[in-house]
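Protocol step 4 of 5: obtain the predicted structure for the target chain.
Materials: sequence only (see below). No template structures provided, no constraints applied. The aim of this step is simply to have a reference model before the mutagenesis design in step 5. Sequence pasted as it appears in the construct record:
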Amino acid sequence: MTIAITGATGHLGGLVIAHLLRRGTPAAEIVALVRDETKAADLAAQGVQVRTFDYDRADALAPALAGVDGLLLISGTAFGRRFPQHRAVIDAAIAAGVGKVVYTSAPHADASINPVAPEHKATEEYLAASGVPHVILRNGWYHENYLAELQAAAQTGTLLTAAGDGRVASAARSDYAEAAAVVLAGEQAGGTITLTGDVAWTQADLAADLAAVLGREVQVQQVSAEEKVQALTAAGLDEGMAGFAAGVDQAIAAGELGDLTGDLSRLIGHPTAPLIDTLRAGVR
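Step 4 output (structure tokens):
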């Protein structure tokens, strides 16, 4: 079985390949799809196939998927252009005869106020209409998303949030990557799986972890979404990113990122890593 991973030199894609190898998938059966092959020299040295794959070059996508049985479509990072990119990849997978597509989506993508949701929703709907066998991995929030808060708290001693009492069942990127590897290498070819960490924490819990890692007091400062946008833009963040951050907080406050499904630890066969481990690694 030949397995291909988009964005293979990115943070998530590289970890998926590492987990596939660790779990016994032969390197020769793994295809790393990358925009720049020079950045994948380490993968090629391990025997992984490396192929050029650019979401924005629709005409070249299907040839790069020749002989691929299972494809991991890692959602792109070009917000506003992600759905056309994803659609092009799905069309190419169909043209190439790929047997299964696994897509990394987001929790409650079909009915979420989270600013990441609309393009995920459109991609999920396109996959459903495409007829290609597929698995949706609705990845919860990532521990690594809070490394920015770590840096801010180190400077200010404050955790600025508009999330209220909402909880976040985040998990480490490596755990999500391992789950993707399990699904890719397995026989499941349908369904939606919501992946979350084993613990749903509050902003007070996050502040306590930040304080423990930084060795200083960290206070939670609860503000409105509008106030958070104003504070972030005043600190130099562009208005679009500030609005994005506030929108995520609103989704948290609405309870969209606090689900505890247990499916992530079930898939990977061990408990999910705690948030504080990622925060500790962020100050090394």
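Step 4 remarks: The two ends are 39 Å apart (CA to CA). Residues 3-139 form a domain with the Rossmann fold fold (CATH 3.40.50.720).
Proceed to step 5.
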